[in-house]
Design brief:
heterodimer; A: 11 helices; 67% helix; elongated; B: three-stranded mixed sheet
Chain lengths: 309, 235
């Protein structure tokens, strides 16, 4: 799949914003921070900026954004529609929670828990946009939603850690951070290992031609003679993205260096280290998300001559 | 309830692309399809939107090989994911005849339906920013102003090899259903579970070519003399 930068940025930025919101609200529910702290508002503002920037970026992917408002209408069947509805519903709920927190209302516990739940549902919906596609076997796996959730929580945790340390608020438990970073890295490593050599469908299968069959039936390995066009098409542009094996390996290593090794090393050096860890994670996530698209192979590639996907 | 679709005879298709050009000609001007634009058709990088594409393959190794010409357009699936994933409701499947269509007034050009289609049946119109696809010539097949024989998709009418057939696959007595039954017509990629309506009639195998034997029998004296002379001439 073509890695569209608008979508890569959308998933990373909104994921980090939602993760940050979850950690901020958990800290608030645990009594570590409240609305009288300036830090509370700094974190809330950063979460809102990241989520909003992500959502705005996603609309840049649309060829006809005038009709974007209609995207809320197919909530019952489309994960893309659900993602939009949940993300937009989060704003009034979060605003209600901020109002309840600022006024010291007892409602703040209920709205806090609801906001956490809805934020996680938004992340899950984003992941399911990709995980529900039968046409992209490398996305249609439990790794997709689990990795999206873990990376949103991990990047949000590192951001909250940096904000909390800078603002003199008790930072999140270091053990939780380490476990989260390692878990996200392990799921992603599992995904890379699972799909490095796996064959889901072949060109023979796509055309219904058996490699060996009883005499009288057309059989044997199929190869493309001519795709029927002299230049690229919408299909080759959207689904024909080729990633060199060597480049994929380099980028994969960069992902793990930036999202696992670097944060683990930098976490222990105070507020400056915490910010560096968060920035390393967000940079690494941009690479990770780019790879998530670049490595995904759509079955229509078979009809364009690829042996298998 | 009708289940309209195409039956494509891969045994008969000669790969001439007449169906694709006829499709462009009809749908390029069709209000229903909304157009199928070309991008710099005479330029260095010609491209454009096609609702039907023909690809050419070879199965097996020479001399026991067979060329396969495979036209592909929308399969008007019964479980069409392109419709269910569409967030705006622009993609829809008609209850009365099963034709899958896009309403360009509602489409926001997110490409998600094209991602959900394994057959490459949907292409974005970059000029208008909306998705385009085969309409099964819905603006021909019901047009009572046309003679009855012409109330068929443009691709079917254009095919010089009669490799394309149009009809109701839900009616066991229809011509298309009979063809599918008699010729073992099959859908493409049924394992994905979209239940495509279009069927492909598989190619018949050519008679097997006997493999050349390793040691040719020694010929007559005359033949051996002739071959010796031939060799001398070649020197």
């Amino acid at each position: 799949m073509k890695p569209a930068l608008s979508v890569v940025f959308f998933t990373v930025s909104s994921g980090a914003g939602l993760g940050l919101a979850v950690w901020l609200l958990l800290a608030q529910l645990a009594g570590r921070v409240d609305a009288s702290h300036r830090t509370f508002w700094v974190a809330a503002a950063l979460a809102a900026v990241l989520l909003t920037a992500g959502l705005l970026s996603s609309t840049r992917h649309l060829a006809n954004p005038r009709n974007a408002w209609r995207a809320f209408s197919r909530f019952r069947t489309s994960w893309l529609s659900r993602e939009g509805v949940f993300a937009v519903a989060l704003y009034p709920l979060a605003a209600l929670h901020l109002w309840a927190s600022a006024t010291g209302s007892r409602l703040a516990v209920a709205t806090g828990v609801a906001t956490i739940a809805l934020a996680l549902v938004v992340v899950l919906s984003t992941a399911m946009i990709y995980a529900c596609l039968k046409t992209v076997p490398r996305w249609r796996t439990w790794h997709t939603p689990v990795a999206y959730l873990l990376y949103a929580l991990a990047s949000g945790a590192l951001l909250w850690n940096a904000i909390a340390r800078s603002g003199g608020v008790a930072p999140p438990d270091a053990t939780a951070l380490v476990v989260l970073l390692l878990a996200a890295g392990a799921v992603k490593a599992g995904w890379h290992a699972k799909f490095s050599n796996r064959v889901h469908a072949t060109l023979n299968q796509a055309l219904g031609v058996p490699e060996t069959a009883p005499a009288g039936r057309v059989q044997g390995r199929v190869r493309l003679l001519d795709a029927g066009h002299t230049h690229g098409t919408f299909l080759t542009n959207e689904f024909g993205f080729e990633l060199a094996r060597e480049r994929a390996a380099t980028l994969r290593n960069a992902t793990f260096a930036l999202t696992v090794a670097a944060p683990l090393a930098l976490l222990w050096f105070g507020a400056a280290g915490a910010w560096a860890a968060a920035i390393a994670m967000l940079t690494g996530l941009l690479v990770e998300r780019w790879l998530f698209f670049a490595r995904a192979e759509h079955v229509v590639r078979l009809y364009h001559g690829q042996r298998s996907v | 309830m009708k289940r309209l679709g195409l039956v494509i005879d891969v045994d008969a298709c000669v790969g001439c692309h007449a169906c694709a050009t006829a499709c462009k000609e009809w749908n390029g001007r069709s209000l229903m399809a909304g157009g199928a634009p070309d991008y710099q058709p005479q330029g260095p990088e010609p491209s454009g939107v096609w609702f039907n594409r023909i690809r050419h393959y070879e199965a097996g190794e020479y001399p026991d090989s067979r060329t396969l010409n495979v036209p592909m357009s929308c399969m008007h699936c019964e479980d069409a994911d392109c419709v269910t994933v569409c967030p705006t409701g622009a993609s829809y499947k008609r209850a009365e005849d099963g034709i899958v269509l896009v309403d360009p007034e509602k489409c926001m050009g997110c490409n998600y339906c094209a991602w959900a289609c394994p057959y490459g049946a949907r292409e974005l119109d970059e000029n208008e920013g909306v998705m385009r696809k085969c309409t099964l010539c819905v603006d021909r097949i019901y047009d009572t102003a046309l003679p009855e024989a012409e109330r068929q998709p443009a691709c079917v009418l254009a095919c010089p090899a009669h490799a394309r057939h149009f009809g109701d696959l839900d009616d066991p007595g229809s011509k298309v259903s009979t063809l599918v039954r008699e010729r073992d017509g099959a859908p493409l990629l049924p394992e994905l579970g979209y239940r495509p309506v279009n069927r492909y009639l598989p190619p018949r195998a050519a008679p097997e070519v006997p493999a050349p034997k390793d040691a040719a029998p020694r010929g007559t004296l005359q033949a051996r003399l002739a071959s010796m002379v031939n060799r001398l001439i070649r020197l």
